[in-house]
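Posting for a labmate who doesn't have an account.
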Amino acid sequence: MPAKSEKQRKFMGAELARKRAGKKTQTGMSERQLEDFAKKKAA
């Protein structure tokens, strides 16, 4: 499910970067979930 807004997409992208760096995330979501949210919608 893609993010609903550009701001949300950017936040999820930052969370994904933190997750991949092995740091604690604010959302507690899995890497796969974060990838889905950080994606842009297919036009």
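Reply:
Got it, the structure tokens are right above this. The mean pLDDT is 87.
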